[in-house]
Design brief:
8 strands, about 100 residues, about 20% helix, alpha+beta
Length: about 100
């Protein structure tokens, strides 16, 4: 019976130790791109990230800002880069800054 108690205690200690190791904080705070949109005529690209930020490479200049809405389907997107823009995705395309953008 003592042998069983010792084995049980050791197993319980191992389970507790592994439980704390499994709760380690994830340091992966990198942004992930949700969607990328490209305008061939303007050679411009707009990146929408999972943290709500947006990066627009327009005519050789790079702009950063934020957005709200779902960029993976048709509907309204609100983009804020220096000023507020409302973009509507229709049939997988949107018009922005003088060009038509398609999902890459």
């Amino acid at each position: 019976m003592r042998k069983f108690a010792k084995i049980s205690a050791v197993l319980a200690a191992m389970v507790l130790a592994l439980a704390f190791v499994g709760c380690k904080d994830d340091d992966d705070d990198d942004q992930s791109v949700v969607t990328t949109w490209y305008c061939e005529a303007e050679s411009s690209t707009v990146y929408f990230y999972d943290d709500g930020s947006v990066k627009a490479e327009l005519g050789g200049e790079t702009y950063s800002g934020s957005y709200s809405g779902d960029t993976t389907k048709d509907g309204d997107i609100i983009v804020i880069i220096d000023t507020k823009y409302e973009i509507t995705i229709t049939d997988g395309k949107f018009h922005f800054n003088g060009g038509d953008y398609i999902k890459k």
